[in-house]
Amino acid sequence: MSEPYAIDARYYDLIHDGHDDDIGLWQSFALRTSRPVLEIGCGSGRIAVELAGAGAAVTGIDPSPAMLALARDRAAAAGVTLDLREAGLPGGGLEAGRYGFVLVPQDVFLHLEDGEAQRAALTEIAEAMAFDATLAIDLPGPAQWLDPSTDGQPMLAWTGETEDGLALDVWHVKEDDLARQVRWLRVSYETTAEDGTVRRQSTEHWLRYPGRFEMEYLLDYGGLALVDVFGDYDLGPLTNGSERMIVTARRKRG
Predict the structure, then answer these.
(1) 126 or 19, which is more confident?
(2) In a domain, 23, yes or no
(3) What is the mean pLDDT of the chain?
(4) What is the CATH number for 50?
(5) Residue 237 belongs to domain spanning
(6) Closest Cα to residue 170, out of 1, 2, 11, 6?
(7) C-alpha distances in Å from residue 56, one per residue of 27, 47, 50, 80, 225
(8) For the whole model, what pTM was predicted?
(9) What is the average pLDDT across 145-163?
(10) CB 122: neighbour CB atoms within 10 A?
(11) Alpha-carbon span 28 to 23, nearest angstrom
(12) Is residue 249 a contact partner of residue 126, using CB atoms and an 8 Å limit?
């Protein structure tokens, strides 16, 4: 099987450098438990390393070997230990009843291709959670939901330079399907050398957007009970203007 995120991994940390608005919230959850913490879709270790640095024992899973290589390098540079595993959900092989806090960070849940895959993943997560554990899922809020009015329009998502001095522009083109609650997204990385040579590399992603009440039902079917829904990393209320939707849940009793 080919590596689906190899191209994205080359530029991921460069593009997301300085993005840490969510770290404090995840640390507050992670440090409430003495049990290990699980991050699903840990990517390059942006969050996992910070949680480990704060004293948590962190397991991170991700289906991308290229992303996990970045996470190992980041952990080594920070002097922390992470338990990193190449795995995804559903089918992640998680240990039952082990984790005190489970995090599905920004938009990772959307990569589960349909409602059934999302329900199956939540069932596995519930089984991996200790009886008193907390689950947090970071999803797009109403202000960042699907919007067909901008379909097909190239949008400059990031511009800057690579580590070796090449100009880099990152372009997004999307197609949103409200009826199916899905987005097809093409990410194009364009580098320009000093001689004007332009090189483009692209990746494509299929994302499924669940709504607030759909999440409540998915959690219920997966053996979890909704605790709260927030609209930002300061745990403010969810409103029409919220760019994030933070869903928290616990295992059902019994």
Answers:
(1) 126
(2) yes
(3) 96
(4) 3.40.50.150
(5) 6-141+210-251
(6) 11
(7) 9, 11, 9, 10, 25
(8) 0.96
(9) 97
(10) 26
(11) 9
(12) no
